[in-house]
């Protein structure tokens, strides 16, 4: 929606949303109510016709004038976007598009060479066809008429715990001299046990 921005006078900084037929003046009934004493109660009117905006003087005392060049009083002004003009001694600027209005960007669609251009009046989207999965008939491996069971999953497979004895888990980590000493102790123990058995058997015979 077009907007009028006040650039001078007691209403400096104010903005007014306007449409065709909006009145500018000092009266509270005007869509653009200004407080400057140089502005008449109903000073001018904004009109939109034939795709053009214009400002028409309503017989005001101080008139309207273009702010570009000589401030010469005229009965009406042709306005464009960002046109600045005087109502009495108040400077105004017309913006045909407000700050919050959406920006319309015109683009040209160029169809891809891989997609056929649809007929006029029809908007088509590319279609993707999925063929059903085909099963190849053939003999099954295994016993005839029996279904081959699926391989067991990791969740159903029996877990075999690796059991290691105290000697196999610890002796491998011993240093070499300690391994030799342990071997000698084991040999001495075996000899002592053998000698003890021999003595016991000899005494029993006697």
Would you write up a description of this structure?
17% of the residues lie in helices and 21% in strands. The relative contact order is 0.09. The strands form two sheets. A six-stranded antiparallel β-sheet has the order 2-1-11-10-7-8, with no helix packed on it. It has a five-stranded mixed β-sheet with strand order 4-3-5-6-9, with no helix packed on it. It has helices spanning 166-170, 176-205, and strands spanning 3-6, 15-17, 23-25, 32-33, 44-49, 52-57, 64-66, 73-74, 76-79, 83-87, 90-95. Residues 102-110 and 115-124 have low confidence and may be disordered. The chain has 206 residues and is an alpha+beta fold. A hairpin with a 2-residue loop joins strand 10 (83-87) and strand 11 (90-95).
Would you summarize the structure shown here?
This protein is of the alpha+beta class and 206 residues long.
């Amino acid at each position: 929606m077009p907007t009028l921005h006040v650039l001078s006078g007691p209403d400096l900084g104010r903005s007014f949303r306007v449409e065709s037929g909006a009145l500018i003046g000092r009266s509270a009934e005007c869509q653009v109510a200004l407080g400057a004493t140089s502005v008449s109660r109903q000073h001018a009117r904004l009109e939109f016709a034939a795709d053009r905006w214009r400002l028409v003087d309503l017989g005001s005392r101080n008139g309207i004038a273009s702010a570009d060049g000589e401030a010469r009083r005229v009965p009406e002004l042709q306005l464009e976007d960002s046109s600045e003009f005087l109502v009495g001694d108040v400077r105004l600027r017309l913006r045909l598009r407000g700050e919050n209005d959406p920006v319309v960007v015109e683009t040209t669609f160029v169809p891809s060479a891989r997609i056929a251009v649809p007929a006029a009046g029809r908007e088509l989207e590319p279609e993707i066809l999925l063929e059903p999965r085909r099963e190849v008939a053939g003999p099954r491996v295994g016993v005839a008429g029996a279904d081959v069971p699926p391989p067991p999953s990791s969740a159903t497979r029996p877990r075999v715990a690796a059991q290691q004895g105290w000697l196999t888990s610890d002796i491998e980590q011993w240093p070499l001299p300690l391994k030799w000493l342990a071997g000698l102790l084991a040999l001495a123990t075996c000899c002592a046990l053998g000698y003890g058995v021999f003595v016991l058997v000899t005494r029993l015979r006697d």
